[in-house]
């Protein structure tokens, strides 16, 4: 699975132009819209991986990329609330109750850390399920999501994605000074989404291209 993920970004006849476009969109993400386009592209990567497509998608139909990316962003924001709301609530309780004790600050840190790990494990699967089904409902289909993540296939894929992501982002972050790093960062993102998609689909025991019946929104 790892070798497939690392070679996937280089598949297809136009893989180099695709990588260059994606790399350019990373620094342009400060303008917001390019960030949504990138997320839309990653949704296509997920679908390709889920259907066992050996060719990486291209940057075509930019309007569709933008709309899909907006949906991905909304889903990501919704899951981030699982971390932010409890953490903010604890901070308010400490500020107005316990007078900002050191123990209270440690509690906020621990709760935030635990929730971040939980969301960091489940949220990628939610995005994968959304991209496969092309439905908001799929991102919150907790039964299907749990069936996919509570498997060795997803756990292994998630761990591999984390390792690839951390190493790649460290290297890409350093090289971004000379712009080449943006190519590395985009490459790594494609590989991590590929890993997560393949692990989730394998965990569900689906054949390539098979999906659950979900109403598209």
From TrEMBL:
Q: Tell me if Transmembrane helix is a UniProt keyword of this record.
A: yes
Residue stretches spanning the membrane: 15-38, 74-98, 104-132, 144-171, 177-196
Keywords of this entry: Membrane, Transmembrane, Transmembrane helix
The reply to whether Transmembrane helix figures as a keyword in the UniProt entry is: yes
Pfam families in UniProt: DUF4013
Annotated protein name in UniProt: DUF4013 domain-containing protein
Q: Which organism is it from?
A: Halogranum rubrum
């Amino acid at each position: 699975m790892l070798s497939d993920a690392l070679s996937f970004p280089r598949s297809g006849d136009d893989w180099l132009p695709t990588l260059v476009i994606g790399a350019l969109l990373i620094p342009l993400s400060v303008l917001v819209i390019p960030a949504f386009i990138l997320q839309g592209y990653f949704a296509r990567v997920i679908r390709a991986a889920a259907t066992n497509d050996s060719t990486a998608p291209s940057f075509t139909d930019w309007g569709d990329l933008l709309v899909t990316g907006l949906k991905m962003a909304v889903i990501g924001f919704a899951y981030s609330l699982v971390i932010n709301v409890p953490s903010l609530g604890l901070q308010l309780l400490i500020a107005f109750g316990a007078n900002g004790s050191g123990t209270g600050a440690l509690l906020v840190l621990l709760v935030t850390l635990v929730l971040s790990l939980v969301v960091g494990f489940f949220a990628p699967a939610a995005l994968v399920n959304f991209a496969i089904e092309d439905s908001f409902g799929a991102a919150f289909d907790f039964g299907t999501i749990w069936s996919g993540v509570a498997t060795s296939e997803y756990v292994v894929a998630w761990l591999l994605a984390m390792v690839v992501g951390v190493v790649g982002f460290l290297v890409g972050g350093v090289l971004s000074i000379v712009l080449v790093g943006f190519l590395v960062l985009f490459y790594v993102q494609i590989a991590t989404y590929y890993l997560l998609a393949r692990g989730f689909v394998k965990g569900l025991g689906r054949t390539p291209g098979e999906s659950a019946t979900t109403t598209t929104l």
